[in-house]
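Preliminary data (for renewal application), adenosine-5'-diphosphate complex.
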Amino acid sequence: MQGLAKCDLMNTTGQSKVKRVPEQKQMPDSILQVERLTKTYRSGSRDLTVLADVSFEISSGETCAILGPSGSGKTTLLGLCAGLDTPSSGRVILRNQDLSQCSENTRTALRRATVGFVFQTFRLLATLTALENVMVPAELSGRGQARNRARDLLHQVGLEGREHHYPAQLSGGEQQRVGLARAFINRPDILFADEPTGNLDAATGDRIKELLFELNRNAGTALIVVTHDLTLASNCRRALHLHGGRITRDTAHPTA
Ligand SMILES: Nc1ncnc2c1ncn2[C@@H]1O[C@H](COP(=O)(O)OP(=O)(O)O)[C@@H](O)[C@H]1O
Ligand SMILES: [Mg+2]
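Predicted structure:
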């Protein structure tokens, strides 16, 4: 296989000494390249192709909505891009590192240094407080100042005074805000959010949307958001439409 970047372990600042991918079509400030991605699940005696030949590129700081009907492969695509799952074929290049060439450990290190992920179902750890949940990715990465930064992020998402509450003591919207703070603790280059407003009432959803773009603007984080929310989608500069596991449209919203 030619032209593939080799992965290398992150140093403590999250920078990598890795070789760059010698791709001619690579954007100067590309943060994510998805090339001919296919994901097939075995279902009984049949193969189910959930993503077929999906390619696109995201540059630093870009905001992009992923739209499509239920079952079109949006969550699968997000998981592959974030290195949470592995494709059947094709490749994902995250910050110039080809995930398919990485060991499990290296992929984990790269993910921790580069990616934030907001899950639709929050996925907070029930036995940890809000503050401790936010601190988890920082502690796993061995970063200092985790507690102060987690406090600061909880403050930014309007949860000051709720640091010591457990998830069960928080509303859905509050749990989603904890999830958002957690996704930002390691100052990710790219944030993936899977229907972040899908389980929330309108007012809480609006607040979450504001926060996403605020944190995106302040930290320069690229934002990839799966959503059915048309306001959220139209606030992104770009929208990828997924249907039956394929990208059917790639639209720009230059005024967003
Ligand atoms: N682990 C799995 N095994 C088998 N099929 C799966 C698995 N995960 C997802 N699928 C199937 O893949 C398709 C796309 O799922 P998903 O990516 O969750 O779609 P979306 O997020 O757009 O609703 C669905 O038909 C789903 O049933
Ligand atoms: Mg989904």
